[in-house]
Amino acid sequence: MSAILETNNLTIGYTQKTRETVVSQKINLCFEKGTLVALLGENGVGKSTLLRTLSGVQNSLKGMVSIKGKDLKSYTHKELATTVSLVLTTRLPESQLTVFELIALGRQPYTNWVDTLTAIDLEKITWAMEETAVTSLKEQPIFELSDGQLQRVLIARALAQDTDLILLDEPTAHLDIHHTFNVFSLLEKLAKTTKKTIIVSTHEVNLAIQYADQLVLLTKDEVRAGTVASLQSENVFENLFPKEHVSFNRTLQQFVVRTSI
Amino acid sequence: MKRKNTHTKSFLLLSLLLLVLWLVNISLGSVLIPLDAIVSILFEGEGVKESWRIIVLNYRIPKAITAVLVGSGLSVSGLLMQTLFRNPLAGPFVLGISSGASLGVAFLILGASFLGGSLLVFSTSSWALALAASVGAFLVLSAVIVAAARVRNTMSILIIGLMFGSITTAVISVLSYFSEAAQIQQFLFWSFGNLGNLSWNELSVFFVVYFVAMSGLLILIKPLNSYLLGEAYAKSLGVNVQRTSLLILTITSLLAGVITAFAGPIAFIGLAVPHITKLLFTTSNHKILLPAVALLGAVVLLICDTIAQLPMSELTLPINAITSLFGAPVVVWLLVRKKKIYV
Fold it and tell me: What is the DSSP string of B42-105?
């Protein structure tokens, strides 16, 4: 089975002048087509850095990332744009873009030099809007959207980009519980129906356990990947967070608040 | 679709307005020339006073063309800066491009008194002014670009631009402190801005630079639109962010540099016209914004220049005073009414 994304002894971190700050190392991951992958770990452990490295926004310190069997470093800007798309948490700059225009920007890697939308582009955009249930918002300016709507629109934009991989950085950060569920079930559905590989970093551990096909657990010492069952049998959930406030309940397969006795 | 139609209508209206204003602009001035005489001069008609012909052909028409080029060029560079820095306050002035040009001219005019003699004569030619302003603009902008490559954070680049601006202002004050009244006056006159200083010869040089810079915009439409989502998204859409940013900065410095060189530091237009356009056209799409901003910039500067000529009188006010006097209230009014500004 050919993997869509693979890392080999990957070391991630930052280079400042000549000093290297290693965030995490010896990362060996392998994801297949059509899976929903959740990156879990406490704040500052390197989820965003890992996502940025996988998307090629940031360079790795050591090791290799390969997408569809090809070294990430040998991708051109354009090739990468048709292979990996992003949904980020950073606020969009204020503009008068409409929902349709924003989603249409996802077609940029395919359009000509003045961004003319062809029939295929329009078809993809319409499809992306239907999948994410934002068709009715089409003509609305994005600054009028609620956080939940905006998140779905951003996912639609990534879908319209028509890539094998979609990376999302904490897509549910500002959402209430209803919209958080909404986003996760949407992602689960998309991974199944579109056969795209969706990698999402999140703090919603319990939801991730429920919805994701594969989990990547990042701790200070190691990065472990696998299905819920395999990770549970290896007792890795127990070490994901400091034990002061939350603990992992094996029967519920959920993290629960530690009640003081 | 409906929006597309209103855009077409707005473009037609603006183009018509531009043509009318251009004609009004050349028919007004301190010498009264009747409209029918102007028309027959334009179309090579006969029986017109020779002095009128010279006034219209050698003064008014170059000035009106300059107004169109300056207005559209400054507005476009303002739009480019606002999109690049995703900051509504950005403009050619904020980045220190214009202060760089001022510094160049200050060194030429004010510094001439130290060196005296030949340089003093040289400093009065408009070519020398243009050259000094371009060199100054280019140097300050290169410094900003070098700094920008190191910090990469757009907000810091804006602040760096402002700091360079303060440094140049300080140097200019020191220079003026040691200069003689005549030189200070000459510098002051340059800083008022002047659209009417260009001969046909200079105008053609101006136009070539303007044309080269403006044609670069064609390949920028797409990346500029992706910049609306921020740098990270632009990059993930396949835009070579570093190369594009450099191209945007180069075009801006070419436009703002050559304009300041030939017409002096013209305030307000670069910052305000993009905002007025965004409010009128309610879009952020650069395919529409770029031509709209250029058209509106030309229209606004033609209006300002027509006011500055004080029709029916022999006086002419400094263009810089008019752009701010007329323009700033318009922007305030638009903002109060619409309550929101966009990048």
Answer: HTT-SS--HHHHHIIIIIIHHHHHHHHHHHHHHHHHHHHHHHHTT-TT--TTTTTHHHHHHHHH
